[in-house]
Specification:
Layout: H1 2-9, H2 12-33, H3 36-39, H4 47-56, H5 78-90, H6 95-111, H7 113-124, H8 126-138, H9 141-148, H10 153-169, H11 176-190, H12 200-214, H13 220-249, H14 259-266, H15 285-294, H16 296-313, H17 315-331, H18 337-343, H19 347-372, H20 378-387, H21 390-393, H22 399-402, H23 406-421, H24 427-443
Helix pairs in contact: 2-6, 2-8, 2-9, 4-5, 5-6, 6-9, 6-10, 7-8, 7-10, 7-23, 8-23, 10-11, 11-13, 12-13, 14-16, 15-16, 19-20, 19-23, 20-23
């Protein structure tokens, strides 16, 4: 009986079905408590939804503020085009479109369980894979974000989980097809969430280093050539969008144009640790008029200069805001976690806050454990939570911004939880380095 229970508890399909059902139950409750008319409109009244409406109406990739302001490179095209397809099939600002978009988000985060499970199985066996998958299945942010916000975060989480698994699998593969698929995966991911570009050179560098250690000195073509092939495919995926931006704006915009505004919104004399959407062109008529008058690229460049000047002239204030945003990212949205935990008596609020904080702490401990045990996989796992959030520490911090890397955060938390229950077990996290040494001896 115990073996049967253990088998079910570590079954990928049991975890995936449980995660899907749990999200659908929360979604059903949310739909029941809100007006269908409002749900068909309100979630799509932000930049992503506005661009999707423009595309669906035949006006092209433009107008992020619900008024005609011309072409935009506000964000990369994958998710707005996906929403535009939903609008064309189910109707613009229709409840059916909300259902379709939310169910797609549920599918994205549920599917992320699969690569996360297999990544854990490769590094630490079935128990680690199941532990990471279970944490992701019950992670409150990965439940609520599927229907409370219509942005690319859920799809990005699926891409990150897939990139992690693919990176681990490519460690010993020399097949060109595998590396081309890896580059294609990165290309589509960057066209969904350009902030992921901060991880690409680090993961490819790790792959090149691992291949160099395991290969013969003369095998430079597979050591450097295969990662170079992946980069080439990634660039080819991004080039059409970059060409489109240059043709429209006559400026080199490889991904999106919004960095200057994001930096300024988080670093100006009126900036607060909790961003209340002040000064954003979508809410501020004066800023919107300035944006329309100057044009998108000139407006973003002006905001970038204002932000950097403020940051350089107010280093103390900049550091304070970055610290509060750090807390907001890892607490699930509040820059004052202790104060809000004591003031807000809602059990659900406290559960979400504690889950986020404990997950972040456990992930940090997981990184330490992996490096302490000299795991070959410590570096590629650590770069996700260490590198990716910096873009938001310096700009704005919203709960959905962390969701793309949360599958890896849950993975690292599972490493810590496993060590707590089996503190003497070191074999799983050392397996990678042992196997590489054996492969290196065999090649010699």
């Amino acid at each position: 009986m115990k073996k049967r229970i253990a088998h079910l508890a570590t079954s990928l399909w049991v975890i995936a079905v449980f995660g899907a059902i749990l999200r659908i139950l929360f979604f059903e409750d949310y739909v029941r408590q809100n007006s269908h008319h409002a749900l068909g409109i309100l979630p799509f009244l932000f930049e992503c939804g506005n661009i999707a409406v423009s595309v669906a109406q035949g006006h092209g990739f433009s107008s992020p503020f619900r008024v005609a302001t011309g072409p935009t490179a506000w964000m990369t095209p994958v998710y707005p085009l996906f929403l535009a397809g939903i609008f064309r099939v189910f109707g613009i600002y229709a409840f059916r479109s909300f259902l379709a978009a939310a169910l797609a988000n549920i599918a994205f985060v549920t599917l992320a369980i699969i690569p996360l499970y297999y990544a854990g199985t490769k590094i630490g066996g079935r128990e680690l894979g199941a532990g990471a998958a279970w944490l992701w299945a019950i992670f409150p942010n990965a439940i609520l974000m599927t229907f409370e916000t219509m942005w690319e975060a859920c799809l990005s989480a699926l891409f990150v989980a897939s990139i992690l698994w693919a990176t681990l699998r490519l460690e010993r593969s020399s097949r060109k097809r595998d590396w081309c698929i890896y580059g294609l995966l990165w290309g589509v991911a960057l066209m969904t969430n350009p902030v992921l570009a901060s991880l690409l050179p680090l993961l490819l560098g790790w792959l090149a280093y691992r291949r160099w250690r395991a290969a013969r000195p003369a095998a430079w073509r597979t050591t450097i050539g295969r990662p170079a092939l992946a980069i080439a495919v990634t660039i080819l995926c991004c080039v059409p969008w970059t060409i489109r931006n240059y043709a429209v704006f006559h400026r080199f915009v490889p991904f999106s144009s919004v960095l200057g505004l994001q930096l300024w919104l988080g670093n100006n004399p009126q900036a607060k640790p909790i961003w209340r959407a002040r000064l954003h062109p979508i809410n501020d008529a004066a800023e919107r008029a300035t944006y329309a008058r100057m044009g998108e690229i000139a407006y973003m460049n002006a905001k970038f200069r204002l932000a950097t000047n403020y940051m350089l002239s107010h280093p103390g204030r900049t550091a304070y805001l970055a610290w509060r945003r750090f807390l907001a990212i890892w607490s699930g949205g509040t820059p004052y976690p202790l104060r809000d935990f004591l003031r807000n008596r809602s059990p659900w609020f406290r559960f979400v806050l504690l889950f986020n904080l404990l997950a972040g702490i456990a992930a940090a401990a997981g990184i330490v454990l992996l490096f302490k045990r000299r795991s070959a996989y410590a570096f590629p796992l650590a770069v996700f939570p260490v590198v990716f959030p910096w873009a938001y520490y310096l700009t704005l911090a919203l709960p959905r911004y962390r969701l793309p890397i949360d599958p890896v955060v849950m993975f690292l938390a599972a490493v810590t939880v496993g060590a707590m229950f089996r503190p003497r077990t070191r074999r799983p996290v050392r397996a990678g380095i042992k196997e590489t040494r054996k492969a290196g001896k065999a090649s010699r």
